[in-house]
Amino acid sequence: xxxxxxxxxxxxxxxxxxxxxxxxxxxxxxxxxxxxxxxxxxxxxxxxxxxxxxxxxxxxxxxxxxxxxxxxxxxxxxxxxxxxxxxxxxxxxxxxxxxxxxxxxxxxxxxxxxxxxxxxxxxxxxxxxxxxxxxxxxxxxxxxxxxxxxxxxxxxxxxxxxxxxxxxxxxxxxxxxxxxxxxxxxxxxxxxxxxxxxxxxxxxxxxxxxxxxxxxxxxxxxxxxxxxxxxxxxxxxxxxxxxxxxxxxxxxxxxxxxxxxxxxxxxxxxxxxxxxxxxxxxxxxxxxxxxxxxxxxxxxxxxxx
Length: 305
Ligand SMILES: C[S@@+](CC[C@H](N)C(=O)[O-])C[C@H]1O[C@@H](n2cnc3c(N)ncnc32)[C@H](O)[C@@H]1O
Fold this sequence. Notes:
S-adenosyl-L-methionine-dependent methyltransferase. This is tRNA N(3)-methylcytidine methyltransferase. With 305 residues, the chain is of the alpha/beta class. The chain has one domain (3-10, 40-105, 112-273, 283-301): Vaccinia Virus protein VP39 (Rossmann fold, 3-Layer(aba) Sandwich). The chain has helices at 3-12, 37-52, 57-65, 67-78, 89-92, 94-105, 127-133, 146-153, 202-212, 229-232, 258-266, and strands spanning 29-30, 114-119, 137-143, 163-167, 185-191, 213-224, 239-241, 244-246, 252-254, 271-284, 289-301. S-adenosylmethionine is lined by residues 67, 71, 83, 120-122, 125-126, 143-145, 148, 169-171, 191-193, 196-197.
């Protein structure tokens, strides 16, 4: 089955509503599952507990300042086997395919393309499905891990005629040497990348992205929400700040509230188009496990003058 067929399949299984708790093990996942007061209280207590004993200041400094080193080791260890291909791009961000269809249907013979820029692309979990289904696209993508970019470039689907993957640190002050032109990008994609960046650098990173967007262009964002299972699972002495943790492998994970994401992007001059909390209950039927995930998904647009 090709990626595109699989994208369509993902779309069809949305809206799985859990009306009868006794049937919870009948599906692999349920959408928009509300937490009861007891669950909310338990989550707050877990976070209070795991953040009460913080990481030492020295270790925190190392992890915050040398994030690149830890991601480089991550990709050398896992290659491209860790992050699943993002096969849901079509259903969550249909705007990209719609822009592609408009170009195809216009019969325009010119070289015009939908310009996409993925930030923190890793080894290509988003770029590869994108290249497969958005035929009239040109995709820029960057990551500060040289190993990740090398893996992506080694894939047979990687075609330099329609994709430019480059090594760059999103927290750099100057982006003048990046291959992307200001005001040239239709869609910026940022999936689970901002959470890997230390909070004081987030506004500067977003300012870079705004600069590259065309007026009318959009940023698509998806990342961890506060009280996601991943946050609750941290142990004491892994917390490097409020809602900020260091994983065993040295990589950072920040857990956002919807309001924080709103403020970060609207303060950069963008208009909020979507800000949703995706409360998903994932069911592991083999192991009888229920996992409550919290992801934030947003769309922001750059106003036209
Ligand atoms: C959690 S992974 C997500 C990868 C991919 N976006 C996905 O959703 O599968 C975070 C990615 O952000 C990259 N990253 C973290 N901080 C970065 C920075 N300052 N500049 C560029 N890339 C960064 C990491 O190397 C890693 O590939």
